[in-house]
């Protein structure tokens, strides 16, 4: 087998193992949370007998290990079970939420990733001159402000003062793409501002690092143009760290935007997960946790593989 | 003073006096800014009340919604599911804004002389959303579902006093073990929504007799309702074509949505921003004094709180005025260490208000002989909005009286299952009940599940049962007064304040009126209001 295929197969297997370990961790975590599902479902107004009845009905009296393996078996057959709290099919409700989350993440990434790389290249090109300083100052400012604060500021100006885009980003199936994009305009702006700095700085640093190498100097001495040097000689060698940080930010856009979801009432997975954690709805929390873990592991896998492919030393191991 | 205020509101309406001037002069008359603003808003609303207009749609931005919500009335416990219930279902009777019982699915009701047997005559010619006629049998099955010990209904506690239920012609007969003059108030409980077949097959189907039918159900996101063209009481409810409840749990998101016109009503306006929000041109902030109260509760059977002098020391050491001022920003009123206020029928206004007194607190603390070990108060902001701040204020005043209070902050998550009703001293919130009997039986009867102060006094229980079966209002009032005073002087309840319900309403909403039962006109604003420019 080609060493690269072997490497990739190894990575995939490791990823799956990691996913399994994550599912155990998630299950253990949810089991040791204080309070129980029945109490959380019925709330403050629960009477002891209603609690006992609900607990029995939900099968909470079975040992944790039994419940874990029963669930794992279901998942392997594509059955995520039903939510304890409202009896809905988890795969179905989760599917819609996941689609929304990916929709928002996609548009935020589609704008922020090219923008960040472009700004990074621009900063390298004008290193230590005013465009570089301006780009760094602005992006570092926006990453330093908490995301909900950026959200509130944008809501105040864009939604209330100028009335350009809505402050409530609730989308649904029956909306046209245009209407959906209109609804998510402000959260996309917020997320772009939040992730921009990280990717931009990494692009800048990685390329600058390469630009100081001897072979770049050689290229310069050979009389190549600046743009060609960056494109042909510097960028390929800077890809690995850039892809890594891009993937980290994509993962963040999928799994870490619960605060933005709350501020804009966006029906994504983050809020869905938080609701079910506070209700101790273990099957849903596990399903969400598993999906989040899969996204993280999957994107890191992609980053690893891209670095392998981009690195001749890893591509042609001795 | 009232004439003066009325004259002034008229001047504002005519434009000869500005809002700012009005609030300033009202303050000179001893009216807080919060109240003055509401008076102005009410005046503006009253002037434009007029006739209802059909059509258009109302969107409600509401906190208290989660993706775990269901449409099953038995499991309803928060704001968004309540809004949904009011659209879809109706109960036998309802409590009006004035505190009277108004018949709904029941046409009329009557009690035997000992208040033990009640007959509810079921209204005829009403159809469920699925086209079936509503029958007495549906009503009986509904009540049976909620009184089943295996049920998960929040109304189970209420139903326990019922010995037998049966159908007699068009009547539902309810027989009680002990007479209860307030039974209709219990039947108005929001869990007891009439469903076809009692909702035994599919309680969350959303099929009821209400003014709206279910269109969209996305828990934790939005719920949409279209008008029920078959509705029996269409002259009074269900004016808009379509309503939507949007789940906006973030307070800033709610106010932004109202300000930008994406929703017409929001609940729970943060008192901190209420007066600022009220300045926005296209909306008003509506507040109404309710029965909900913010409390610190101590178990009277656990040391050191089993010492009444220590309890009194704590009660005197709390500065109620300051709390209403700083925690509620004036949207509330001071409490008197009993769970009853003037919003309840048969309230005795003459019970003396407990005043903040460092000297008395110190005196009682010395008398209690407490060993000086820290008195731990557990709080979380989930107990009530501003609970942690309120505890800090309490800490400062207690310190001045030499009481070694110590605050332990608990996580919001799990607060109701791990801290409340378990730890001996903690912060809590009570939503209040329509009548005194229900409030006392829920939390101060020896056998109550939620006796969160462990208040177990046979003489108190006896008075409660005596008042319950008493049909003479004068006598009942006297008994309730005695019970309230007893709780005030000996109970484990430290009640610094009653909170107002504070809602935000767009100016193009017609038909708004105050209802002290719950927020958003007892959650009925979307079904009772209309859009003026529809």
Automatic annotation (TrEMBL), chain A:
It holds the Pfam family BPD_transp_1. It is found in: Cell membrane. Gene3D superfamilies: MetI-like. CDD domains: TM_PBP2. Keywords: Cell membrane, Membrane, Transmembrane, Transmembrane helix, Transport. The keyword Endoplasmic reticulum does not apply. One of its GO terms (biological process) is transmembrane transport. It comes from the Bacteria. It is a multi-pass membrane protein. Belongs to the binding-protein-dependent transport system permease family. This is Peptide/nickel transport system permease protein. It comes from Sulfitobacter marinus.
Automatic annotation (TrEMBL), chain B:
Residues 101-451 form the Solute-binding protein family domain. It holds the Pfam family SBP_bac_5. Gene3D superfamilies: Dipeptide-binding Protein, Domain 1, Dipeptide-binding Protein, Domain 3, Periplasmic binding protein-like II. It is found in: Periplasm. GO terms for cellular component: ATP-binding cassette (ABC) transporter complex; outer membrane-bounded periplasmic space. GO terms for biological process: peptide transport. PROSITE patterns: TAT. One of its GO terms (molecular function) is peptide transmembrane transporter activity. Belongs to the bacterial solute-binding protein 5 family. This is Peptide/nickel transport system substrate-binding protein. It comes from Sulfitobacter marinus. The lineage of its organism: Bacteria, Pseudomonadati, Pseudomonadota, Alphaproteobacteria, Rhodobacterales.
């Amino acid at each position: 087998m080609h060493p690269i295929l072997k490497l990739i197969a190894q990575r995939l297997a490791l990823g799956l193992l990691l996913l399994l370990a994550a599912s155990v961790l998630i299950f253990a975590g949810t089991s040791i949370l204080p309070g129980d599902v029945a109490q959380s479902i019925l709330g403050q107004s629960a009477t002891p007998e209603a609690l006992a009845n609900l607990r029995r009905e939900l099968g909470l009296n079975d040992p944790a290990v039994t419940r874990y393996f029963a669930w794992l078996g279901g998942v392997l057959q594509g059955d995520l079970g039903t939510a304890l709290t409202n009896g809905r099919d988890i795969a179905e409700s989760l599917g819609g939420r996941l689609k929304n989350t990916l929709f928002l993440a996609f548009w935020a990434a589609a704008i922020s990733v090219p923008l960040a790389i472009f700004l990074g290249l621009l900063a390298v090109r004008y290193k230590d001159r005013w465009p570089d300083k301006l780009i760094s100052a602005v992006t570092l400012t926006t990453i330093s402000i908490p995301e909900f604060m950026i959200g509130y500021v944008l809501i105040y100006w864009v939604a209330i003062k100028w009335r350009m885009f809505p402050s409530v980003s609730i989308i649904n199936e029956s909306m046209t793409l245009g209407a959906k994009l209109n609804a998510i305009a402000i959260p996309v702006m917020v997320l772009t501002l939040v992730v921009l700095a990280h990717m931009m700085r990494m692009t800048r640093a990685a390329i600058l690092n390469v630009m100081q190498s001897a072979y770049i100097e050689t290229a310069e001495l050979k009389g190549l143009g600046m743009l060609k040097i960056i494109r042909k000689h510097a960028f390929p060698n800077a890809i690995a760290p850039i892809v890594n940080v891009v993937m980290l930010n994509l993962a963040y856009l999928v799994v870490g935007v619960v605060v933005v979801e709350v501020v804009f009432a966006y029906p994504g997975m983050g809020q869905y997960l938080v609701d079910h954690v506070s209700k101790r709805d273990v099957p849903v929390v596990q399903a969400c946790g598993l999906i989040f873990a899969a996204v993280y592991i999957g994107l890191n896998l992609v980053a690893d593989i891209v670095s392998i492919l981009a690195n001749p030393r890893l591509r042609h191991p001795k | 003073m009232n004439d003066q205020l009325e004259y002034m509101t008229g001047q504002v309406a005519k434009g000869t006096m500005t809002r700012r001037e009005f609030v300033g002069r009202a303050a000179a008359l001893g009216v807080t800014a919060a109240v003055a603003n509401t008076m102005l808003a009410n005046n503006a609303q009253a002037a434009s009340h007029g006739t209802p207009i059909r059509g258009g749609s109302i969107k409600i931005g509401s906190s208290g919604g989660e993706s775990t919500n269901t449409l099953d009335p038995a499991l309803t416990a928060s704001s968004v599911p309540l809004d949904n219930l009011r659209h879809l279902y109706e109960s036998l009777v309802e409590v009006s804004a004035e505190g009277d019982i108004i018949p709904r699915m029941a046409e009329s009701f009557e009690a035997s002389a000992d208040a033990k047997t009640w007959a509810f005559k079921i209204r005829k010619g009403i159809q469920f959303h699925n086209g079936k006629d509503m029958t007495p049998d549906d009503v009986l099955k509904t009540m049976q579902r909620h009184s089943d010990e295996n049920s998960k209904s929040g109304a189970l506690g209420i139903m326990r006093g019922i010995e037998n239920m049966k159908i007699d012609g068009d009547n539902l007969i309810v027989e009680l073990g002990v007479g209860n003059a307030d039974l209709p108030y219990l039947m108005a409980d929001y869990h007891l929504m009439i469903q076809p077949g009692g909702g035994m097959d599919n309680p969350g189907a959303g099929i009821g007799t209400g003014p709206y039918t279910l269109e969209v159900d996305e828990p934790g996101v939005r719920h949409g309702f279209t008008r029920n063209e078959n509705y029996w009481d269409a002259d009074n409810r269900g004016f808009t074509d379509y309503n939507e409840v949007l789940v906006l749990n973030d307070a800033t998101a709610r106010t932004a949505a109202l300000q930008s016109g994406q929703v017409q009503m929001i609940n729970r306006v943060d008192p901190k921003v209420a007066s600022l929000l009220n300045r926005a041109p296209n909306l008003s902030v509506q507040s109404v004094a309710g029965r909900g109260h913010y409390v610190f509760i101590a178990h009277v059977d656990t040391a050191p709180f089993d010492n009444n002098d220590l309890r009194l020391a704590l009660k005197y050491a709390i500065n109620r005025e300051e709390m209403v001022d700083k925690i509620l920003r004036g949207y509330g009123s001071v409490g008197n260490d009993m769970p009853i206020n003037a919003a309840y029928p048969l309230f005795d206004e003459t019970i003396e208000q407990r005043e903040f007194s460092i000297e008395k607190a110190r005196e009682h603390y010395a008398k209690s002989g407490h060993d000086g070990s820290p008195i731990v108060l557990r709080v979380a902001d989930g107990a009530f909005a501003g609970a942690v701040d309120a505890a800090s204020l309490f800490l400062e005043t207690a310190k001045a009286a030499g009481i070694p209070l110590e605050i332990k902050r608990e996580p919001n998550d799990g607060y109701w299952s791990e801290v409340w009703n378990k730890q001996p001293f903690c912060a809590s919130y009570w939503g209040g009940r329509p009548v005194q009997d229900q409030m006392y039986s829920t939390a101060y009867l020896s056998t109550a599940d939620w006796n969160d102060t462990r208040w177990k006094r046979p003489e108190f229980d006896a008075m409660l049962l005596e008042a319950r079966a008493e049909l003479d209002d004068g006598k009942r009032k006297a008994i309730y007064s005695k019970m309230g005073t007893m709780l005030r002087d000996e109970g484990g309840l430290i009640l610094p304040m009653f909170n107002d319900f504070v809602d935000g309403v767009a100016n193009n909403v017609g038909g708004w009126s105050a209802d002290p039962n719950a927020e958003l006109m007892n959650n009925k604003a979307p079904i009772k209001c209309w859009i003026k420019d529809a």
